[in-house]
């Protein structure tokens, strides 16, 4: 097994996940099987209880893991299927060690960070690295490990020590490190100077902790000047080719092309003794995948037609809260050979209360909503801003605007329909409107109000298309033979099964259910360009080279090319326009 560790310095959020994913994609392009691990030094057991406003979205894996959003980057770029074990947290390891200590596992020894905690980290990494991540079920050739946080943080120290020990155990020929550092421009602007001192200090910190980066990936606004590259190389005792410029581009999907141009693949393979000219079944597949990636990314540079999509949500102040949703929209736009402009609308600004406190915010939000080609309402929890979401849904329904509601978005769609079409003014949700006498959204059976996480529906579950729904715009995207799909879930509320018959009579059709036939998975209005709600989260399975059909259908309807999509999918096209 070969290990590539991607660490970060200077500031957090500099793009470790994108650099790690891009390096993995380049290795895949040469036929290597790549797996990934994200290490998070926080004490939380997983990401499930963390606020999306502070930490970004909670990403969900097939097996129901609530993990760091960077695992979403890995899956989207590499088209792999990861598990909850691919996200390692300090809290998870401490919990395991303490549980062992309480049962006498350590036979009275003093349990310490070194060696017990650091050895446990290495054990987790080595076990997880062997888990197959693609359809071939082959053991991975390379494991890319992203170390969360910033080198120098107190909580990162045990993990850096553990990785230094892992390097010693597996041999330096099987272990390399890429360090991502930020190069600021002072003063900011085109005439500013690229400052290397933060990068120098960051490399020094890494080395003093026991690791030695092979490459330093410098995040910067513009490409590094030759003089800046030479200075970093001189001050960090590196060759100039070991200093990689990761500068801003039109999209993050250009980063793999940027890294390839600077020969990062050749440097990694030479150091790790990975044979680029080997004969292997994955090589042709990797080449085909890379060609498709390059085509899609470069084609975006020549597209002019831009489609505006409104994302109406509760947490829009932190765009990472809806990272998978925004990326899924981008994937669909690339397939449709369009550009996309996502308009972020805080749902609270659509409410009358905002008009009384800030008429400017209110009118801007409504202007933005009325000017877009399609509207997405993603998931969330709690009562905040739900009034504004319902108003947005009403506008999309009555003005025939393509609409997609996900999880909470679907549930509020049902509430809106019951109130404004079925004439039930107090229709509500047990979560959001406990005082209501007509709950169209209810807790799932067995809900535990003391600890709602015990009854959270997580991970991949099947959805079966209902008989007689061949007319469905969404179903047509999957093709006539498909009667069942599988999607990832994260919810604890559902449509009241006692209300389904009334909803359908009123024109809100049920298109998909779970295998029991009791849980409603997909709803759709027939007489509408595209008005669909899904209980699952299709964004978790969208990939750059294989966009979610739910998002693809929605975006195509907004771009007025929906009728072309089913045939293109059946023919296996990577895009509506293929110019190989």
TrEMBL record:
It catalyses: UTP + L-glutamine + ATP + H2O = CTP + L-glutamate + ADP + phosphate + 2 H(+). Keywords: ATP-binding, Glutamine amidotransferase, Ligase, Nucleotide-binding, Pyrimidine biosynthesis. GO terms for biological process: 'de novo' CTP biosynthetic process; pyrimidine nucleobase biosynthetic process. Residues 320-555 form the Glutamine amidotransferase domain. Residues 2-274 form the CTP synthase N-terminal domain. The keyword ATP-binding applies. One of its GO terms (molecular function) is ATP binding. Its EC number is 6.3.4.2. GO terms for cellular component: cytoophidium; cytoplasm. Pathway: Pyrimidine metabolism; CTP biosynthesis via de novo pathway; CTP from UDP: step 2/2. Pfam families: CTP_synth_N (PF06418), GATase (PF00117). It is an enzyme of class 6 (ligase). Catalyzes the ATP-dependent amination of UTP to CTP with either L-glutamine or ammonia as the source of nitrogen. Belongs to the CTP synthase family. NCBIfam families: PRK05380.1, PyrG. This is CTP synthase. It comes from Penicillium rubens (strain ATCC 28089 / DSM 1075 / NRRL 1951 / Wisconsin 54-1255).
